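User: I'm putting together a teaching handout on how multi-component assemblies are represented. Below are the sequence lines for each component of a complex, exactly as they appear in our records. Could you produce the 3D structure of the whole assembly as structure tokens, so the students can see both representations side by side? Please keep the chain order the same as the input.
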Amino acid sequence: MTFAVEVKDVSLNYHEVAALKNISFTLEKGKIYGLLGRNGAGKTSLLSLLASLREQTGGTIRILGDAPFENPEVMQDVVFIYEKDNKDESEKVIGMLKFAERYRPHFNMDYAMDLVKGFNLPLNKAVKKLSKGQQSALFVTIGLASRCPLTIFDEAYLGMDAPTREIFYKELLEDQSNHPRTIIISTHLVSEMDYLFDEVLIIDKGTLILQEENETLISRGATITGTANEVDQFVKGLRKLNEQQLGNTKRVVIYGALSKEQRNEAKEKGLEVGVISLQDLFIHLTGEGM
Amino acid sequence: MSQLFDENKPLFLQIREKIEDQIVNDQLKEGEQAPSTTQLVNFYKINHATVSKGVNQLVDEGILFKKRGIGMFVAEGAKEKLLEKRKNAFVNDFIVGLVQEADKLGISDEEIIEFIKKVKGSDSK
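Assistant: Of course. Below is the structure of the complete assembly, with chains in the same order as your input.
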């Protein structure tokens, strides 16, 4: 089976600074991946390697079985939408779409036009005259309508207002289910976008700290709330991510699935077991200390 | 994550119950097309794998069935099956707790029935 993406022992140095250290993972075809990481963790560095914008310092990368760097066959199948400076882009919206149609073998102009309508974009306006949110909507349109086997959105929502982002998410899910492809989304809007991801990858300080199915990941985290003594006893031996205390009430975030017996034990002791969101897990897994 | 949901119940169970509810109260009739997984994901803002898990349980139990390339439909007899199942669960989910609490408070059986009549009476007004 060919994977959509295979990354093995990849590192990337900017002069003396290591931006990525020995990263390895594989991505399957047809899934939506969420790439999470704090500012400067290395998300954009990693994505720009996948999109052949740079070459890794060490390790190997395969996109649909081939090395991507300076490989035109691979590059036309990968679309990378990221924040860029468009203040000098005098091309009109329609011109940008026609350009994409020419170079992207799977580009669908009818669908692009539907999106243009949905996002309310003016076809004959120059890109540099669009608002930041409109520019983002245009590049998201190109990203979706290109229907590339590997589609990457790196904080593609910047400047979009909430209703526009909602259209983006809805279209992403619908078009992905009609035309399956591998999508990677990097975002800081974790709580707003968590439902989009089939799998989640978290990078921290240039290393991959976790790759997991979204559902499994969320079921691993739990909060235990109760009197401080009882909680402390219960969480002994479990991996604690965070703890907070209010008077004699304590709340501990744990990581690791609880067995049925443990859940029953918690119930008997009057402890409350709560679920935790992906956003909270992300914060605790990448936060400084405890 | 949707705010509508109960924190202490697995999400896939809640999804299947939402669909069950629609079948039980005739919003979704037998033979009709049920919402697709993608529509459910978009509507409830719950992850795809979670939604599929709930929907697949309903398929396994013969409440929904798949038509290749078209979508998901409500099976014949689905409503009856669900009503049967829910009636069985009714005793566990509602009556046991009610009786336990009534015993604790020393409420007699006659009083319980009076209360039920009262509630039902005020409902119909």
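A couple of points students might notice: The helical segments of chain B are 11-24, 37-44, 48-60, 78-105, 109-124. Chain B has two domains: 11-76, 79-124.
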